[in-house]
Amino acid sequence: MELSRVITVSDRSAAGLRPDLSGPALAELIRAAGYDVEIRLVADGSESVREALRAALDEGARLIVTTGGTGVGPRDRTPEATAAVIDRELPGLAEAIRAEGRRHSPHAALSRGVAGVVDPSPGSPGALIVNLPGSPAAVRDGAEVLLPVARHALAQLSGADH
Length: 162
Known about the structure:
The protein is of the alpha/beta class. It has helices at about 10-15, 20-30, 45-60, 80-85, 90-100, 135-155, and strands at about 5-10, 35-40, 65, 90, 115-120, 125-130. A hairpin with an 8-residue loop joins strand 5 and strand 6 (about 125-130).
């Protein structure tokens, strides 16, 4: 079973002021898709997210999904941190996630989430990193788009034929 990581990005949840509802909901969906899942909780901001993404890669996670920090708030910097870590962007996946979200909420259009891959390197098989918004409903919508294509993306990243 491939290792995946859910990273919840929230100042309030990281400070213990609000329970993390999105991370566990997302982990349950990813686990049901056949992945081994670990959850991490970090504060908003580029540095904390970038460090969490790099730690997940160092620990061998192949599917890394963030929840939170994709909006327009002053500390919403998850997309910027992700862009600093990925090698190639997958704009079609990010747009499909936004499109699915817009079917349920006009606020989905405000998500700046990105998706991309970290290329394989010696000792690392590469990874798929995807940003989802921070609400449990948005996590479910995003997972409906992501999970049916994740294994194929990871297989292609590992050199499998189309």
